[in-house]
Amino acid sequence: MIRQITEKWYEYNIDIHNIFIDYTHAFDSIKRNKILDSLIQYKIPPKLIKLVKLSLENTTAKVIVNKLYR
């Protein structure tokens, strides 16, 4: 999928912004507002910052180990 996106980006000569979020690590230990502050510091477009913010807000997770919820 990433290859197709990159091909279209090249074919149509448009800007592309990729964000990869690794949800396998412990997100609870990270101060989420610091992530947003870093994006602002690196001058990421506001629309993309809003998308990241929405993906971090009001999220819940469940861990299943041996068919038991933890």
Molecular structure report:
With 70 residues, this protein is mostly helical. It has a domain at 23-70. 46% of the residues lie in helices and 6% in strands. It has three helices and two strands, in the order αααββ. The protein has helices spanning 2-12, 32-41, 46-56; strands spanning 64-65, 68-69. It has a two-stranded antiparallel sheet. A hairpin with a 2-residue loop joins β1 (64-65) and β2 (68-69). α2 (32-41) runs antiparallel to α3. The chain is flat. The mean pLDDT is 79.
Task: Please supply descriptive tags for the structure shown above.
70 residues; mainly alpha; two-stranded antiparallel sheet; 3 helices; 2 strands
Query: What does the oligomeric state look like here?
Result: single chain
Element order, helices and strands? HHHEE
Question: Strand tally, please?
Answer: 2
Shape: flat
End-to-end gap: 33 Å
- Please indicate the percent range of residues in DSSP E strands (runs of 2 or more): 5-15%
How many individual helices?
3
- The largest beta-sheet arranges its strands as 1-2
Structural class: mainly alpha
**Biggest pleated-sheet summary:** 2 strands, antiparallel
Radius of gyration: 16 Å
> Mean of the pLDDT scores?
79
Low-confidence stretches: none
Helicity level: 40-55%
